Amino acid sequence: MPEPGLILGIEGTAWNLSAAIFGEDVLSLHSKPYSPPTGGIHPREAAQHHASALKDVISKVLEGHNPADISGIAFSQGPGLGPCLRTVGTAARALSLSLGVPLIGVNHCVAHVEIGRWQCGCDDPIVLYASGANTQVLGFLKSRYRIFGETLDIGLGNALDKFARSKGLPHPGGPLIEKYALEGSPVDLPYTVKGMDLAFSGLMSAAKSCNAPIEDVCAGFQESAFAMCVEVTERALAHAGKNEVLLVGGVGANTRLREMLKSMCEERGAEFFVPERRYIGDNGAMIALTGKIMLEAGQTVSVRDSAVNPSFRSDEVEVLWRKDTGDLPYRSANMLSDGFARGAEALVSERGDYVIKKRLSKRYRSPSLDQRLISERTKAEARLISLSRRSGVPTPVIYDITHDSIVMEKINGLMLKQSLTVEDVMDAGRIVGRLHNAGIIHGDLTTSNIIVREYDGRCVLIDFGLAFISSEIESRGVDLHVFFQTLESTAPDHNELRDAFCTGYKESFAEAAEVLERVEEIRLRGRYLH
Ligand SMILES: C[C@@H](O)[C@H](NC(=O)OP(=O)(O)OC[C@H]1O[C@@H](n2cnc3c(N)ncnc32)[C@H](O)[C@@H]1O)C(=O)O
Ligand SMILES: [Fe+2]
């Protein structure tokens, strides 16, 4: 393989046309941002801006360098705005052909991660990638940057920008909201975390129609939105058993978000990293650096295959430049062992015949949001446990509830993973069928969260910390997918056990067939952590 020399990288997925040269370090970096005269980013206008700025940006970045030393052209192949991507793609192809050097199609999200790893010197982080268009929690697993959780509607930056615009503030709104928030005290606004995923549009609409002083709304917006991101990051960290957190993407410039992540990391004993300001938002250096790494790994693209992809996902890229870390050891959200467990969210302890589950205060959250979430979730969990019981799903009896704790019956018996007989697993299928039939999703359906009760051999469902109400096929499918994954990792004869589970599930739930079909689809998508 030829020794790569200098790589020219071009970024232009959205607002910033930026190019850089990377050798052993960033040798030059030039940008020409597009700022919309009014409103948000118009894709075609941005593309026109990029087209007219290209010549200038490329020649500035090449100043003092010999084009003959360039050994590859890297460009953002996606995701991003179609017209912008096409403009930059065309320029990159032309440069590659005229210089006679390879073309490297870089995934923009992967590039955000790689420049962060390179600049901060971290190795295997859980990444919070919070930008205008994307909000994702990523981690490296089995040769890919897997998406552990992500926004179900719009990107966080986008939500901030749109809210700002509705209050008459110019684009981009993120930095101005940060300024206002410093002067305000947070109002209560919606907080939406669904398992590992987030949603921002409800929060944005509530903020738009909130009549409190702008400073207070901005502070409330930040507190809710950032705490949501930190919560999912913490959950991924706990599940994956990693000990580094990296923050990337434009919203990562925000001091309050950094402070909250840092505080969460300190509480968990993890290290927190964030790259310099100029490398955190969109920039050409991240494309040039990733291009270099990819060229070294032989990951170039022919002109014919270099079409841009506006919805290119990070997990579509096979990462040949990192050592495969293989499967994750499976960890449940609340690892219950020997009567004491500290999950991402709660502390579970045993006192004789009782189990006490206490939700923990998080220093990263504002005190009012913290108290609100703790009491809402404690109440919701207790309610779902009782509702499940009434629907014929064996669950622990609840003895007492306080603002942060649930005192419940201790179920004596073995965890299902220690008692994987066909009969037991079939019974598990039956109770999960009843649960789904009642419109309840468990949210963390592992073989550790089902106990085979000693006195009658019945399966009892525990730990409803991530449970929620839903009749969506997708949520039900994810529940089963998680269960089958843990079954696979604990039992050699998992096919037989899986069949037994399905038999039980079909017995008690009329829509079983449709859900089981979806499970197969989910497995093929390979998105979920378990
Ligand atoms: C596909 C690509 O084009 C896209 N890039 C992108 O969105 O640009 P980026 O530079 O990563 O992020 C811009 C966002 O970052 C926000 N932002 C910048 N400074 C901020 C601050 N101090 N506080 C909060 N948000 C901030 C802006 O409001 C804007 O929404 C992406 O990565 O999703
Ligand atoms: Fe970006």
From TrEMBL:
Gene3D superfamilies recorded: 3.30.420.40, Phosphorylase Kinase, domain 1, Transferase(Phosphotransferase) domain 1
A Gene Ontology molecular function term of the record: protein serine/threonine kinase activity
A single GO BP: tRNA threonylcarbamoyladenosine modification
UniProt entry tagged with the keyword tRNA processing: yes
Region: Kae1, residue numbers: 1-321
Database matches in InterPro entries: ATPase_NBD, Bud32, Gcp-like_dom, KAE1/TsaD, Kae1_archaea_euk, Kinase-like_dom_sf, Peptidase_M22_CS, Prot_kinase_dom
EC numbers, comma separated: 2.3.1.234, 2.7.11.1
The name this protein goes by in its record: Probable bifunctional tRNA threonylcarbamoyladenosine biosynthesis protein
